[in-house]
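ok so i was messing around last nite and threw this chain in just to see what happens. nothing serious, just curious
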Amino acid sequence: MSSLKHRFRSFLREEDGLVLAEGLLMLPLVVWALVAMFIYWDVFRTINVTQKAAYGVADLLSRQRDTISTNFANGLQNVMDFLTPGGHPVKMRITSLECQGANGGGCTATNGTYRLLFSFSPGGKVQPLTQADIQLWKGVKIPVLNNLESVYVVETSVEFKAQLQTAIAGFMVGVEDATYGQFIVTKPRHRRLCLQGTTTCN
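result:
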């Protein structure tokens, strides 16, 4: 009986293989952490790169004089693709508008209307906006404009899909496929931005 107790106490004091056991317990957590860091990094990289590219396109448009050609507008998609290498496909829409204030006033949430100069999507990937659509931006997305003051909006959208299409991405990490977008309002350096072939700027 004493021999059995001695063997049992020796077994409890035995520490051989303890590191291996702890390693096996921690291995799932280490794998989860590596996968999570990769997926989270991919999400923030996609948002960051797309945002910088959208601001680059908006700045490029601000330097144009009044009217841009359709070829130039379509070429902006090539610029966007170049600025987002190896990323997810980015869709873009450019909308130019002008404030028509009531009685010479400006355009606020309750006063004035927006006059659509043009709405264009390079490659036709996004549906152009109408006069009625842009009125919803008043007091929400567009700052207060003076009468006849013009701005243009660069909208981008990117459909993010996790590089690791597994249950780990959606369930364990909490990152699912989603669409991320940018809405950039810019004032042109000249009076307004127009598109060749449209009659709204006449």
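not much to say yet. The chain is about 40% helix and 20% strand.
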